[in-house]
Amino acid sequence: MHLSSGLKIVYGLLASVSVSLAFALPPALAQAFSNGSELGIFYATTRDNEGTAARPSYGSGRHLDLGQGSLEYGVAPLNRGNFNSIVESKNWSQLRSEMARRDTYWTNAKVGQGSKLSDADFFNRVKNFHGLICIYVHGYDISFAESARELAELADEYEKRAGQPVFPILFSWPSTGSKVDYSGDEASLEWSAVPFRDFVNRLYNEKSADSSIDLLAHSMGSRLAFWYAMAAAPTITSSGRPPFRNIFLSCADIDYYTAEQRKEELQKCAEKNIFILTNDNDGPLLTSQALHAQTRLGRPADGGVAIRQIVTQPGGARLPRNVDDLRNMATSAKSGELLNQVGNLLAGSQPSVNSGNNNNSLAQFALTTFLNKPGSGGASGGLLAGPTSGNAESPDVQSWLAGNGQLSREWSSRTKLIDDTGLVTVNMGHRIAWPLLAGLMLSEPTLPPFVATVVHKRPSSMLLREMGGTPTYLYRYYKIDLDRLQK
Q1: Could you tell me the pTM of the whole model?
Q2: Domain shared by 137 and 250, yes or no
């Protein structure tokens, strides 16, 4: 494998640390569960089946446990489309075009009629598979079909790059797929924690000895990874059997400091590595910071309390009427730098904020302002706007490191923080970053065609205050360099 200089740093550190699909296929393809034109997405879901046994359909209701468990199993087919791997891109223009084409296709791809599988049939297929099993846990505000498409896009790219099949399993919990139901989604995710834990444990016990399991969790779904680890870590400590090969957390919507408390338990659940993908320009995570008044793991920049100052201006709380109004409010707020970031996000996605009949509530402000999933055909800036620089560290960080190079450290011994800020294609502002993940899932994790630059981020104001104004450590981030590709 040929590595660029930036990639050598990353890899060196990694070293230390139709409906009948899958039912009537010939034996060779039955093991792969897919073929050249179709991809089978298996699922284990706590969503209620609103259809029939013969034609299942999964909405936002909960599959309540009436003595037979809350999980239902099945497989759904999707057409692959005709794409080459993105690693074949020769330059940024070609890469942007290929990713945009792929995102547009998969966002609109038709999910074929799913077929239920019995408990025994599902796990028999697991036993007969030999290779990588990937569990994908989706996040907030997403339907069953949307999450199946996301996993299909990643699985398709992985198979092209690995040259071998993957067993993709969607763990789908009852998200309502509605922006206004954040709290409802939180409750349904928490309710799904026990079924998820039981599923992972059984999957690990039933799989073939030469298979491994990767866990990929997105957004709010990342909380299931931590909840699982909190329950499983004591058992893993005594048995020495971590259930996962690698763990990937993308756009993790979990309290940053809770993640800090629990990271050692999480690491015990991974045999090899943990990868945490962060994005400073993630609008939904900015919203979550406002709603929770705390920084999120997937957006480790200052926020939360600072964002709340938007609606607590002198003279009474009110909502900004538009982007210009927001920026005017930012000039008199203590958190002006952050609010200007908010304004920039707004300017690129929603130029006008309707402040009528919303009771001036913070939640309504957040929901009407930041929780935007771009439409299937619209560009959302970022990568489509072309490569950008900005990898340099802030002057205060440079000064701290110059005075003490020992401040630099990893998040944990086998965990890598990857900053993919700016790597945004059509519909990929708050989705799994499949172009990165497909490479990191390989037996030898790799970033091509991307190149990473090591940077350090300024601690949050709260953390810096607790440190006495001078950091006692600075975490390393592997920031995707949007100025160049690996040659």
Answers
A1: 0.81
A2: yes
